[in-house]
Amino acid sequence: MRTSSLGLAVLDACLVTPEAAPHLAEAVEAFARLHDSTAVMVRSDGGIEITTYQRGGHTLPVEQAVERAHELLSHGRAVLLLEPTNREIIQNLYIMIKNRYETLCRHMCCD
User: Fold this and answer.
1) Which of 10, 26, 49, 103 sits a CA distance of 20 to 30 A from 18?
2) Tell me: the pLDDT tens digits for 41-72?
3) What confidence score (pLDDT) does residue 25 get?
4) Is-contact 77 48, C-beta < 8 A?
5) Do 3 and 13 form a contact (C-beta atoms < 8 A)?
6) Residue 102 in 3-state DSSP?
7) DSSP string, 26-90
8) How far apart are CA 54 and CA 43, in angstroms?
9) Residues 46/15, Cβ–Cβ less than 8 Å
10) Dihedral sign, CA of 61, 64, 68, 71?
């Protein structure tokens, strides 16, 4: 994980659309190799909501990541492959962004 020019944590990502489903396994394997890893995080946002949709990302071994991503793509959802990390880091990143945003808004509105 690297940091942005704003000092925020940044994860590398690869967007896989439903149209690219035939190349999914190659994409997951190549993304894992790029990060010298045997796992990737699978995340999906947007698209048609389904009752089995799980929020957040899940770091999974490559084979399981392909299966999970394929399931999401089959429901018309785009999939983000992210460098492997854990949910705690993502939750902390969200809290950090939210806190910085709220602080910025307070300064803009109240100063």
Assistant:
1) 10
2) 998 865 555 555 555 678 899 999 999 999 99
3) 95
4) yes
5) no
6) helix
7) HHHHHHHHHTT-SEEEEE--SSS--TT---S-EEEEHHHHHHHHHHHHHTT--EEEE----HHHH
8) 9
9) no
10) positive
Decide if pLDDT at 76 tops 80. Answer: yes
CA 41 to chain centre: 6
Residue 25 is encoded by which pair of tokens? 């396994």
Token pair belonging to 70: 């394929």
Q: Which two tokens stand for residue 33?
A: 């190799």
Six-digit token pair at 73? 């793509």
**How many CB atoms lie under 10 A from the CB of residue 61?**
14
